[in-house]
Design goal:
The chain is α/β, with parallel strands linked by helices and 448 residues long. It has helices at residues 62-72, 87-99, 107-110, 113-118, 134-144, 241-251, 266-279, 296-308, 388-398, 432-439, and strands spanning 5-8, 19-21, 28-29, 32-33, 47-51, 79-85, 147-151, 166-172, 197-199, 225-227, 229-234, 258-261, 284-288, 292-293, 314-318, 345-347, 354-358, 403-410, 412-413, 417-421, 427-431. Helix 1 (62-72) links the parallel strand 5 (47-51) and strand 6 (79-85). The longest helix is centred in the middle third of the chain and has 14 residues, at 266-279. The radius of gyration is 26 Å and the shape is globular.
């Protein structure tokens, strides 16, 4: 699949992997147009960069510009990076220039504050018509439909985004759910029917494990399946950007859309998107956690297992607990498990770090699907308590469904580490919980 990236208002700047969009080449930033009109369609662009472009539009036009750019991005993974002059920084520059108290600024730089505010005005395109603050730009991005809005660092200065006056925000185009429901975003109803994902025919080289044999070769084969696939996750307010990039890279090859939910209540953040995806006709829902690390090949292998084993309604990847050398799964009555190399194994509980669920199976599972229960003494510390995720597995099995884990899909679980010098001045790496236990024994309890 071709990854399409645009550098809007590129001028003469060339960025590897990005198609330049500039009036000098016969293009337009709004409505977004390339002189090769076949390039830009709705939901087709994976990444946009617009450095010091948005301020050239009138304040009454900016919302329409952002919505036009939003429409072109791929739902679920499309990313936009914007840089504009920061009005608050310009004010600091003006005060420093007028007072003579530079406060760390370079005099030649602060003298340019009028140009940063109004543009160089060297030609008809070099005029600024809108000012931006951090909160104001974020609000406009949200109104246009963007999500996951955060600042980005210009690590490798290549264009005007590196200017000291720059306000830099990046955002994603989500597949969003359920209008107006607290705890998650809205807008899925505006998208119409979700397009089916297609599993292409792939020959399986492991005889005797999976599907029908080819009558000519005797080898097991797979046939294509048309299904609606969607991914979802509950996200923290702040998270690891590397993990976000990993998820995007894993979902992009099959263009799997992503539903994101937030809020303080994990159980609501899970059930609301589940219900909305059922209503929208999603067949297979891929759940993932913000701290899971996996590849496109891991997702493909999971999908292949599901296609090859139609009896499997729920399949989780093999993921370790944090701080413990055990998998995030249980089998009743067993403390040790002999792992096969390829064949999925049946378990009693799993996780949602990378799990595929056939949503049709939820029809006979009573609601609520996620519900934390205190221990028998009414507290949350008693060993009989049941967390919301474990509650799901209990009612899933009570409804007659099974849970499976794919031992050949081994995914990562993010865990913070500390590097330090030991007594011999050699570098040493410790998990944070190990460092805390060494220095403050008993002060911190580890969590999965």
């Amino acid at each position: 699949m071709e990854i399409r990236r645009l550098n809007i208002g590129s001028g003469t700047t060339v960025i590897e992997g990005f198609t330049p969009i500039d009036r000098a080449f016969g293009d337009e930033a709004w409505p977004l147009k390339h002189h090769n009109t076949a390039l830009i369609g709705d939901d087709t662009i994976h990444e946009m960069r617009a450095s010091h472009v948005l301020e050239h539009f009138g304040h009454g036009e900016v919302d329409a510009v952002l919505r036009n750019w939003y429409d072109k991005l791929v739902p679920g993974t499309g990313l936009i990076r914007i840089a504009v002059p920061d009005y608050d920084i310009i004010q600091e520059m003006r005060k420093a220039c007028e007072s003579g108290d530079l406060n760390g600024w370079d005099l030649e730089t602060v003298r340019l504050w009028p140009l940063y505010l109004m543009g160089g005005q060297t030609d008809e395109n070099d005029h600024h018509h809108t000012i931006f603050t951090r909160d104001g730009l974020e609000q406009r991005l949200r109104q246009a439909g963007f999500d996951d809005i955060r600042e980005w660092e210009d690590d490798e200065p290549i264009d005007t985004a590196s200017h000291p006056v720059s306000l830099r925000l990046e955002a994603q185009k989500p597949i969003v759910v359920g209008p107006g429901v607290p705890g998650h975003t809205s807008g899925l109803d505006d998208l119409g029917d979700m397009p089916p994902g297609k599993l292409e025919p792939i020959r399986n080289p492991a005889p005797g494990v999976y599907a029908d044999a080819d009558p000519n070769t005797g080898m097991p084969t797979r046939s294509a399946i048309d299904i609606n696939i969607c991914a979802m996750m509950t996200r923290p307010r702040y998270g690891c950007l590397d993990a976000s990039d990993i998820r995007e890279a894993a979902l992009s090859p099959r263009q799997i859309p992503m539903v994101k939910s937030g809020g303080a209540f994990w159980d609501q953040g899970m059930q609301n998107p589940f219900e909305d995806c059922v209503e929208k006709g999603v067949d297979w829902l891929i759940t993932m956690d913000y701290d899971s690390f996996f590849t496109a090949e891991d997702i493909d292998r999971m999908l292949q297992h599901m296609g090859d084993n139609p009896e499997i309604e729920c399949l989780a990847a093999l993921q370790p607990r944090r701080n413990k050398p055990f998998p995030l799964m249980t089998i009743k009555g067993r403390t040790q498990i002999e792992m096969p190399t390829q064949r999925p194994i049946e378990v009693d509980t799993a996780h949602f770090g990378l799990t595929i669920i056939k949503l049709a199976a939820l029809e006979n599972v009573p609601k609520p699907w996620f519900w934390a229960q205190p221990g028998e003494d009414g507290t949350w510390r008693h060993f009989t308590r049941m967390d919301a995720d474990i509650y799901f597995w209990h009612i899933w099995k009570q409804a007659g469904h099974k849970v499976w884990v794919a031992p050949d899909v081994r995914i990562g679980h993010m865990q913070e580490m500390i590097s330090e010098f030991d007594e011999n001045h050699e570098i040493r790496y410790l998990h944070i919980v190990d460092w805390m236990e060494r220095n403050y024994p008993g002060a911190v309890k580890s969590v999965d």
